Amino acid sequence: MEDNNKVTPKRGFPGQKASVQATLRWQGREGGAMAFPEPKPRGPELPQKRLKTLDCGQRAVRAVRFNVDGNYCLTCGSDKTLKLWSPLRGTLLRTYSGHGYEVLDAAGSFDNSSLCSGGGDKAVVLWDVASGQVVRKFRGHAGKVNTVQFNEEATVILSGSIDSTIRCWDCRSRRPEPIQKLDEAKDGISSVKVSDHEVLAGSVDGRVRRYDLRMGHLFSDYVGSPITCTCFSRDGQCTLVSSLDSTLRLLDKDTGELLGEYMGHKNQEYKLDCCLSERDTHVVSCSEDGKVFFWDLVEGALALALPVGPGVVQSLAYHPTEPCLLTAMGGSIQCWREETYKAEDGTG
Fold first, then answer.
1. d(C-alpha 273, C-alpha 25), whole Å
2. Are 93 and 72 in contact (CB under 8 A)?
3. Which residues contact 333 (CB under 8 A, 6 or more apart)?
4. Residues 6+ apart with CB under 8 A from 2
């Protein structure tokens, strides 16, 4: 066991591993020697043009999630339903009913054939996308399920609960109990993310824990404030952590070193989402003041405060490869693209 308790602030340029390629890219120096300096490449465009607002008809939307390729999205409703949408078209494709209480999180499998969801009924549900039917319902958590994820092969569902445990459920087995239980957290699990061999978990106890499944190691970093969301950077070298002190922190995944802090948004009461943009250039967060905040990852400066509406921006999802953002507020979701975006039908 290793415990990286000490988070040491580092001023100026964030850590070498995370930033060298980014610096070269921004300065136009990637590649071989040049006789003349290249023009500085255009910075990435941020999604700030609202394309659509969809009334989801689910009372409050608790979470919005893209599928693996970004063509579809899921919305989790306080009316106990899960809905599948084509967000750019604004089309509802299917409604999934089977939870006994509000749905709090959902995820799609790598091949788009299955969904998993968790909610206030303490259940984890495996769904067949095409038929809309419940394949399995896993019970065992002692409290509401805040977060669910598939592993890469979609053979295991990982669920994090207010009961302070992460449970791993075998999608192919009929056995009712989990194949593994991770119970190191001292308070509720708010966020779980999965890579090919790692599980990243954030807890209300103020710690972000990374389980290396290949090596059998647990790494723990103390943030201090209750954690609301965690995620890996897309290059897999950093972790982003948001907490109830209205601060996001970028940590070196291997050492726990604090590479950057991002402030200006409001997050003091609610479990809100954060993420990195599709090219790891910006840190993105929901806020309780009705905006989505974008910070330059390297500089730490606020790049955009995007007004969404008068309430809390409860959830967000960033497209895996394009500057496309989904936000959830109240009973609706909003779809955002970059200013230069033109829709295929010419209405963009």
1. 28
2. yes
3. 53, 54, 56, 61, 64, 73, 75, 85, 87, 326, 327
4. 217, 218, 219, 220
Q: Are 323 and 277 in contact (CB under 8 A)?
A: yes
Answer yes or no: is pLDDT of 348 > 70. Answer: no
CB 166 within 8 A of CB 157: no
Sign of the Cα pseudo-torsion (306, 312, 318, 322, in order)? negative
Tell me the C-alpha distance between 347 and 266, whole Å: 34
How do residues 57-72 score in pLDDT, each as one tens digit? 999 999 999 999 999 9
Look up residue 130 and give its two tokens: 């095409």
Point out which residues pair with 128 in neighbouring strands.
Answer: 114
Average pLDDT estimate for 159-179? 96
How confident is the model at residue 137, as a pLDDT? Answer: 97
> Is the pTM higher than 0.85?
yes
Q: How far apart are CA 276 and CA 284, in angstroms?
A: 6
Residue 18 has pLDDT above 80, yes or no: no
Confidence at residue 220, expressed as pLDDT on a 0 to 100 scale:
97
